[in-house]
Write a structure and sequence with these properties.
The structure is a single chain. The two termini are 18 Å apart. It contains 17 helices and two strands. Helix 4 runs parallel beside helix 7 and helix 7 runs antiparallel to helix 9. The protein has a single domain, classed as Orthogonal Bundle (Farnesyl Diphosphate Synthase), CATH 1.10.600. It has a two-stranded antiparallel ribbon with strand order 1-2. The chain is an all-alpha fold. Belongs to the FPP/GGPP synthase family. GO terms for molecular function: all-trans-octaprenyl-diphosphate synthase activity; metal ion binding. InterPro entries: Isoprenoid_synthase_dom_sf (IPR008949), Polyprenyl_synt (IPR000092), Polyprenyl_synt_CS (IPR033749). This is Octaprenyl diphosphate synthase. It comes from Variovorax paradoxus.
């Protein structure tokens, strides 16, 4: 379904390259390093697909697609510093290659450049959506930091973090398309619900892949979440479904951020059916996304959004 917007993505890449142009070489170098790493570009793709579904073909869709990619990239730069990550998308992180100070400061540059670009739309509602999204994402980052090494975290607290930290920008991307298209408040809310549900499902599957994926395919080290002390859904289900001894082992590893028993923990996650339970939770979110578009007119872009939600559950990287 992404073939539908291949030409649009070329235009978004042009805008990105143009707006990364700066007289400070290190800013360009670090920005281009992380953006050129590839990735799925799901957030700009969602904005473009939703714009197509709603019949909006104006130039601002390219500008705002680049804006959400810049905001996302800024969060990655900051995340990798906070998490002390060394690998992303199969190659060294920016902080590993350029150091923490450069990563933090270039992340700040991308945030401020994104806000400069928002002004081009000359629409206060768009500013409001993106300002709120950026603020909620920052709150999610702090919530996650507070929850590090907390093995008592339950499913609702976990969902609160990922809906703030990850799903909020998905939600903003689809909501922006509705605003650009001049959609009714009801359609705008349907678009936002689709984005939030899809973003939640995406993050749950991402957390599943930390215990079921291959580092060569996922581009990150298996067990990274555990090393960082993150209580993700597979671990929550493993502690709930496992024996007292299994739950104690998982709990101790989370609290210590210890991967010495990673092999045993992966076995527990598999043996307790925690991965299947997590995928089922992601499937419920994908169904919620699909349901949100139930009243949309059928066209290629709307069908692409439905396919995207369905295929997300087959994600392996």
């Amino acid at each position: 379904m992404l073939d539908l917007i291949a030409g649009d993505m070329v235009e978004v890449d042009r805008v990105i390259a143009q707006r990364l142009d700066t007289g400070v070489p290190l800013v360009s170098q670090v920005s281009k390093y992380i953006i050129s790493a590839g990735g799925k570009r799901l957030r700009p793709a969602l904005l473009l697909l939703m714009s197509g579904a709603l019949g909006y073909t104006g130039e601002q869709r390219f500008n705002l697609a680049a804006v959400v990619e810049f905001i996302h990239t800024a969060t990655l730069l900051h995340d990798d510093v906070v998490d002390e990550s060394t690998l992303r998308r199969g190659r060294p992180t920016a902080n590993e290659s350029f150091g923490n100070p450069a990563s933090v400061l270039v992340g700040d540059f991308l945030y401020s450049r994104a806000f400069q670009m928002m002004l081009d739309a000359n629409n206060m509602r768009i500013m409001q959506i993106l300002a709120e999204a950026t603020n909620v994402i920052a709150e999610g980052e702090v919530l996650q930091l507070m929850n590090m090494h907390d093995a008592t975290l339950d499913e609702s607290a976990y969902l609160r973090v990922i809906r703030s930290k990850t799903a909020k920008l998905f939600e903003a991307s689809t909501r922006l398309a509705a605003v650009l298209a001049g959609a009714t408040p009801e359609v705008e809310e349907a678009c936002a619900t689709y984005g939030q549900a899809l973003g939640t499902a995406f993050q749950v599957i991402d957390d599943v892949l930390d215990y079921a994926g291959d580092a060569h395919e996922t581009g990150k080290n298996v067990g990274d979440d555990l090393r960082e002390g993150k209580t993700t859904l597979p671990l929550i289900f493993a502690m709930r479904r496992g024996s007292p001894a299994q739950a104690t082992l998982v709990r101790a590893a989370i609290e210590a951020g210890d991967t010495a028993q990673l092999g045993k923990i992966v076995e527990i996650v598999h043996a307790t059916g925690a991965l299947e339970a997590s995928r089922a939770a992601a499937a419920d979110e994908a169904k919620r996304a699909i349901h949100a578009l139930r009243d949309f007119p059928s066209n290629l872009h709307a069908d692409g959004l439905l396919q995207l939600a369905a295929q997300l559950l087959e994600r392996r990287a």
